Each structure stands twice: as structure tokens, then as C-alpha cells.
Description:
Blueprint: E1 2-4, H1 9-19, E2 24-28, E3 43-44, E4 54-55, H2 56-60, E5 65-69, H3 75-87, E6 90-93, H4 99-102, H5 107-113, E7 118-123, H6 138-144, H7 165-188, E8 192-197, H8 198-205, H9 207-216, E9 233-237, E10 242-246, H10 250-259, H11 274-279, H12 281-292, H13 297-307, E11 311-313, H14 317-320, E12 332-337, E13 341-346, H15 370-377, H16 382-390
Parallel strand pairs: 1-2, 1-6, 2-5, 6-7, 7-8
Antiparallel strand pairs: 3-4, 9-10, 10-11, 12-13
Amino acid sequence: MLDMSRALAGPYCTMMLGDMGADVIKVERPVHGDESRNWGPPFVGQSYGPYPGESAYYMAVNRSKRSLAVDLKSPEGQEIIRKIAARSDVLVENFRTGSLEKLGLGYEDIKKVNPRLVYCSISGYGRTGPYKNRPGYDFIIQAEGGIMGVTGPVEGPPYRVGVSIVDITTGMFASTAILAALRARDESGEGQLIDLSLLDSIVALLANVASNYLVGGTEPKRMGNAHFNIAPYEVFRARDRWITLGALNDRQWGMLCDFVEMPELMDDSRFAENHSRVANREELAEILNRVFSTRDAKVWLEMLQEAGIPSGPINTVEDVFNHPQRETRELVQFIEHPTAGRLGFPGFPYKFSETPAQLHRPPPMLGEHNEEVLVELLGYSKQDLVSLKKAGII
């Protein structure tokens, strides 16, 4: 797999596929590499070039890859890419629309050297339409794509999602699309172009919120932690801190009413059906908050779990990595890095019975695999490498 992406969306996709066994060759600029190498602190390991070390951000999405540092603006660098593409099953890129075409590395160019290649292009707004030449950034697309319009408290400013949800979602969509395209190639023998955009991805992620608007015609508003279609399904204040709680159907609602010793709520016309609970969610939340404010969160959560009512704590990231499920579900994976030592990563969300995902390689240092790729894979001589390096091509 030829990974010509940088930052987050593309690298997240290729990392997923690398964890599942793909041989990923990450192409970076000489000297500076992927710009996310500079997105810190924190940094770990030895300093190099302009950087005090490897950024945690870069480390997060570039494991299980090899790094090739090559100048794409040079004819020699472009030829290297064509040679790797000729041997590859997949190419992933997230340059601005039209940029690689100018270098002779666009889909139609690469298709000539490898018609079986699956070429995945990720951009801000897609390869068509009036915005096709605009750059795309997660924060901007969260705003433009509607997520910020429904995220945050009812009053005050809108909020971005705490992680780069547009980039990550696009990366996941890309990995799924690539696997589907490879399966199609098994049948047809031909590769194809996959055109993915950050905007398309975030619109798809609107899911039921989009459907509410398209079906009902009502503009969804920010609701804090409340749910658009279900009540109660939000946070409630225990005596010492907040907890999460949900009753997703009438059976669970009945269980909750019994739990808080208020069976009369089941017959109250304001709360008898889910649609009426949604319409009167503020009154319902006020009643439940009065109940839950009488005891500490830990007490309530133990009782709620015992009663079988969906509920949970609001954990910090530190809490998550000390979760009771950590060991059995392998929520953290470790690998040795040549300069940073033992590094931890979030575990794999997919568990295969026969072909388990694994950390095949630590995140590569810039150009770490130049010789491995050029000499062993493409047949360049070591003298060729000396000449290419002297010319600043690698």
C-alpha cells in the first residue's frame, strides 16, 4: 500500500489497514516529513531536523508503516512513486484536488502503470463541485457540516467534538471503501478511483439528526447532553458528580420508574410514551435530578447496574485506561520505538478470531526505510541512494 497522505484522515485509514496486515509505505517530504510530526507537545524520543522529537500526534496514527522520504516535485521522485505504485494494490492520498495531477501522479496517470490499483483520494470537499479546490480542515468542516450546529449547550457558543471526528470518520470510511474496492477487483480484475471528502463524511455522520430534518422539516437545535429522539437519555447530577442514564424503550422506562420509587410517572400523560417524554424532557429531567442529587454517583451507579438500567460514569481519559475492561479487551497495546522506548497505543476495536490485528511496526522515523524500500523493493543500488540523497531527492 502506497500512503501519500499526511495529517490525520489518510494516515488513520492506512494505520487501520496496516494493523490488519497491509504493508504500508508512507511517503513524506525530506527534512520536514508529515506536518503532524510538529504538532506537539508532547514529543518523545531523540530530536532530529527541526523537531525536538516525535510528536505524540504523529505517533497516534502512523504505526505499522514504513517511511520513505522523497521529493515529489523532482522527476526522479515522481519516478520512484510510479515504480512503487506499479507494485501496489492501494494508493491513498489527501493532497488538494488537482495537485498530484500536476505532478503526473493523478489517478489517470497511475492507472496507466497499474490498472489494478485502488486509488483512494481524500479531500476537503471532493473532486467535483464549486468547492473542489478548497482545502479542508476538521474544525472548519465540523462547523460547515452541521455537527457544531447540534453540539454544545442550548445557550452560549457551539462546540466542536473533542476529538477530530471528521478526519477520523473519513479515515474509517476510506478503509471500508478500499476493502470493498479490493473485493470488487477480485471479481473484475480492475482497480478504481475512490473519491472521499471530509464534508461528505460528516454529513453521513449526521445520521438520525439529518433524518429528523429531512423527514420532519424542523431545524435541529443544540440540546446539550439531551437526545433528539429519546428521553430520558442524558446526564443527571448525583450528589458529588454527573452520571449518564438512559431509558431507551418503555420497558426500561418502567424499570426506572420503579427504581426511583415513582411508579405514578408511568401513568402521567406527560411521560407515558417516549414521544411525550421527549416533548416534556425538561420537566422530566428536573424530577430525576431531584432524585439523583440525594446520593453519590458511585452508590447510584452500583444500584442502577444491579437494576439493569443503562447507566455509567463520566470518565476522564486516565479513568478509561484504568477501566476494568482494559486487560481482557486489550484496550492498550505496546511496542518498542528505536528512540522513544516503550510506547502505548489504544487497542484494536476489532477482534479477529483467526487473523488478529497487531502492531507490526512502531511509527517510523522520517526516511527510516529509504534503503529498505529503494534497494530491496525497487532494486536501486546503494550508489543510487547516495546520488539521490546528495541531490536532495530523498
